[in-house]
Amino acid sequence: MPKGSPERTSARREEIINACEKLYQTMSFKEITIKEIGSATSFTRTSIYNYFQTKEEIFLALLMREYELWIAALREEMAHREQMSRDEFADMLARTLEDRAQLLKIMSMNHYDMETGSRPEHLAAFKVCYGESLQTVASGLDKYFPDMTAAEKRDFLYTFFPFMFGIYPYTYVTDKQRTAMEAAGVNYAFMTIYELTYNCVRRLLR
Question: Residue 175 burial (CB < 10 Å; 0-12/13-18/19+)?
Fold first, then answer.
């Protein structure tokens, strides 16, 4: 860990994560390197290694930040709602994920690489955040659907969270993929993040 105030350390980490996020808007995970990220910051590339040893750790930190933003949005919604119907709960999850397309993109494309390429302490911090997202959704089930059994809640969580990994590839389709689908004669219904998530949650809450 570099020497300096916690504020400076946090600011440097955020600048690195922001640089990675900006590059990810126009480049793929494979194309982005520590050198590319360093060029987009205000300090030297070698300084990055004081905070992250690999690009996978930087992406994991970006994913963690996306999870934190999603958790905050869920908690904000639930703090102001004493009751929700099944339709309203499905709508809440769908809307909050629609706002976090980057979360879904990173999850679907680079999750395994990020975890295997990160040091244990970085991975453990991420797992704590991931666990908070599970608990936040679980708390919503407890609050709004007290009649659900423990088994039903468990089934919801361990269906919905793996489902999230597939949302982005099914909703963001390139022209090449679209053309290939048509050439193959695949009858494919293109849906938005909201539509796919809402329909899944509503079915899980039957």
Answer: exposed
CA–CA distance, 117 with 123 (Å, rounded to integer): 9
What are the boundaries of each domain within the chain? 1-51, 56-204
CATH code given to domain 56-204: 1.10.357.10
Q: What is the 3-state secondary structure (H, E, C) of 26-66?
A: CCCCCCCCHHHHHHCCCCCHHHHCCCCCCHHHHHHHHHHHH
Q: pLDDT tens for residues 117-162?
A: 999 999 999 999 999 999 999 999 999 999 999 999 999 999 999 9
pTM for the predicted model, two decimal places: 0.92
Q: Do 1-51 and 56-204 have matching folds?
A: no
Percentage helix, strand, coil, to 5, in the chain? 75, 0, 25
* The CATH number, out of the four listed (1.25.40, 1.10.10, 1.10.8, 2.60.40), of the domain defined by the range 1-51: 1.10.10
Give the Cα separation of 25 and 20 in Å (integer): 9
